[in-house]
Amino acid sequence: MKQFEFVSGSPDTTMDFSKRLAERLMPGDVLTLEGDLGAGKTTFTKGLAQGLGIQRNVSSPTFTIIKEYMGRMPLYHMDVYRVEDSFEDLGFDEYFEGKGVTVVEWAHLIEDQLPEERLQIDIRHGEAGSRMLILKPYGVRYEELCKEILG
Length: 151
Ligand code: ADP
Ligand code: MG
Fold this sequence. Notes:
Elements: E1 4-8, H1 11-22, E2 30-34, H2 41-51, E3 66-70, E4 74-79, H3 92-96, E5 101-105, E6 118-125, E7 131-138, H4 140-150
Parallel strand pairs: 2-5, 2-6, 4-5
Antiparallel strand pairs: 1-7, 3-4, 6-7
Helix pairs in contact: 1-2
This protein binds adenosine-5'-diphosphate (ADP) and magnesium ion.
């Protein structure tokens, strides 16, 4: 599979990048974020929210699993770190197929429930506090999206 890379030297650069991505997103789009604690998954989501015109501050939804924000369309922000049973159906599909964009932190923990088509983004620590964002598009739509912003 084709993958795309982006190196970010600061939290602001990560947010600018996800903001730019957000401007091209459509209802029903699903982004999955992977990376250690402190990698920048929530930081990425903050930029995404900005790009969707959301005014409210986005914080980690660790204790609620799903938080919903309203912008030019809804943003469903999930952090599934604390989901005990990866097969437990918490109604994720309704979000994935909903009228907004879904972003899932620690998505591999609910791998079997993820839609086939999605944009997976792995965030890794790089040198001098930088981050490497590795984008893996599952589906033509997401591949085109990656090409548009990074091609
Ligand atoms: P996660 O949600 O993956 O646990 P957070 O986004 O909550 O991570 O935290 C990432 C931390 O790393 C923040 O304190 C952020 O300021 C810092 N940081 C430093 N450099 C970067 C970068 N290039 N991109 C994103 N975050 C960065
Ligand atoms: Mg987080």
